[in-house]
């Protein structure tokens, strides 16, 4: 159950640790560090973890540290990969609250102030997020006033994520209470695509979840080198990784929590249903692509094979006549996506 609360100012001065992992993103580091430090009412420390970059990232990081004592640098001698880089940085975090912001993303002014205030006033909340706006070159602008605070019982928020089969966070807007972070074992190397989603889900098993409603909390940079556009691109890859994340949640994170276990069929059905829809959207009449998505749907939620929609789509694809969405289907898809975006922008789920 979500409860709305009136925002309240900080009455203390908490500390926040910002971990900035970096690999060949030296050109973005000054903006990322500046955004992290542009926070009032909280004591911020920044740790840049350079994963043996082959560009000038380490030199830029050291120059930023030399210019501001709040900035520290850890440089890997050998490339360790992004999960190890995240965990190395988080292991050194000592703030009351902790956030991990990729070097190409940017925290908005006072985003940490707003997140910390919510958790200072709601001690049961272990994770706070907000709206993360995508951008390419110019930082986004928008309202700065906090309209409200949303607070969910953690397992209610988890149930919503499971029933929709997806994550509501982009990542740079997420701030965790350090005690909640320490209850996890860090980012799971088995989940290179969705370790952050796994972190949010298992946190919600034990902690409440909050959201800062209204302002842009972080800016997520979209560019050709984004990991989700390179190593882990494609809807089917994303669906498979989400399924694995939920499998680990149900099988390992909370195997004895009946309330969590009851969500498994809903999560699998949501993923299967989305696979059917995505297959048609991205196939553009290619039957092999449709079949791949339909097979994933059937593997994920066996009962979907008995639905009329799955049977019809399978028959059309096998016969090589997978339909390409017409103008009406494309238009309604855009409207559905826009309405979904507006709802999630306002309410966070």
UniProtKB/TrEMBL annotation:
Residues 17-182 form the Glycosyltransferase 2-like domain. GO terms for molecular function: transferase activity. Transmembrane segments: none annotated. Pfam families: Glycos_transf_2 (PF00535). Keywords: Transferase. InterPro entries: Glyco_trans_2-like, Glycosyltransf_2, Nucleotide-diphossugar_trans. This is Glycosyl transferase. The lineage of its organism: Bacteria, Bacillati, Actinomycetota, Actinomycetes, Propionibacteriales.
């Amino acid at each position: 159950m979500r409860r709305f609360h009136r925002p309240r100012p900080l009455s203390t001065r908490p500390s926040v640790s910002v971990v900035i992992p970096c690999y060949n993103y030296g050109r973005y580091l000054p903006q990322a560090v500046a955004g992290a430090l542009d926070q009032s009412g909280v004591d911020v420390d920044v740790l840049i973890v350079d994963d043996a970059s082959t560009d000038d990232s380490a030199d830029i990081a050291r120059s930023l540290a030399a210019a501001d004592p709040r900035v520290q640098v850890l440089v890997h001698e050998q490339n360790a990969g992004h999960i190890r880089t995240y965990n190395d940085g988080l292991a050194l975090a000592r703030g009351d609250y902790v956030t991990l912001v990729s070097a190409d993303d940017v925290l908005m002014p006072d985003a940490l102030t707003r997140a910390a205030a919510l958790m200072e006033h709601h001690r049961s909340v272990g994770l706070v997020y907000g709206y993360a706006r995508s951008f390419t070159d110019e930082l986004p602008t928008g309202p700065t006033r906090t309209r409200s605070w949303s607070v969910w019982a953690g397992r209610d928020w988890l149930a919503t994520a499971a029933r929709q089969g997806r994550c509501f966070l982009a990542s740079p807007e997420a701030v965790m209470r350090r005690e909640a972070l320490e209850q996890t074992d860090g980012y799971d190397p088995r989940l290179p695509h969705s370790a952050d989603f796994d972190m949010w889900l298992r946190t919600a098993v034990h902690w409440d979840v909050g959201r800062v409603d209204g302002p842009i909390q972080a800016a997520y940079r979209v560019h050709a080198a984004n990991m989700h556009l390179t190593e882990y691109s494609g809807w089917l890859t994303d669906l498979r990784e989400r399924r694995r994340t939920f499998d680990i949640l149900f099988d390992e994170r909370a195997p004895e929590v009946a309330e969590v276990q009851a969500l498994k069929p809903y999560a699998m059905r949501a993923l299967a249903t989305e696979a059917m829809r995505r297959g048609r959207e991205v196939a553009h009449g290619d039957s092999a692509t449709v079949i791949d998505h339909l097979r994933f749907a059937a593997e994920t939620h066996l009962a979907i094979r008995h639905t009329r929609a799955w049977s019809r789509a399978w028959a059309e694809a096998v016969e090589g006549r997978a339909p390409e969405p017409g103008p009406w289907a494309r238009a309604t898809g855009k409207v559905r996506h826009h309405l979904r975006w507006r709802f999630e922008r306002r309410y966070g789920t």
